Amino acid sequence: MRSIVSYLGCGNLYFVKPRKVTDYCVVKYSDLIEKIIPFFENYPIIGVKSQDFADFCRVALLMKDRKHITLEGLNQIKHIKAGMNKGRCV
Question: What is the pLDDT of residue 90?
Answer without folding.
Answer: 60
